[in-house]
Amino acid sequence: MELDRLKLGLYTMYNLGDGTFQIEQHLFPPRQTPELGYLDELLEHFFSEDKALLKKYQQAIGR
């Protein structure tokens, strides 16, 4: 199955018509652990506006 090969999950989202949505999970995606270099780059980018929050987050995940 392509979802397995690409390591993806499968979800559907239904518009309930009142401004809300119902989301159903059909296939849970496998856990993927990023390479540490990619993780550091992502965190640096995500927290680029707040270095104190970056340090706090890194401490919380044990980095």
Describe this entry's structure for a reader.
Helix content is 41%, strand content 21%. With 63 residues, it is an alpha+beta fold. It folds into two domains: 1-31, no CATH class; 33-63, no CATH class. It starts with a helix and ends with a helix.
Largest sheet report: 2 strands, antiparallel
Number of strands: 2
- The parts where pLDDT drops under 50 for at least 5 residues are none
How large a portion of the residues is in β-strands, by DSSP E? 15-25%
Shape: flat
Radius of gyration: 17 Å
Strand pairing plus helix content: what structural class? alpha+beta
Q: In total, how many domains does the architecture comprise?
A: 2
Helix content: 40-55%
Task: Summarize the helix and strand pattern as letters.
Answer: HEEHH
Strand order of the largest sheet: 1-2
Task: Calculate the terminal CA-CA distance, rounded to whole Å.
Answer: 36 Å
Question: What is the count of helical runs?
Answer: 3
Q: What is the averaged pLDDT score?
A: 89
Question: What is the secondary structure topology, with strand pairs?
Answer:
Blueprint: H1 2-6, E1 10-15, E2 21-27, H2 36-46, H3 51-60
Antiparallel strand pairs: 1-2
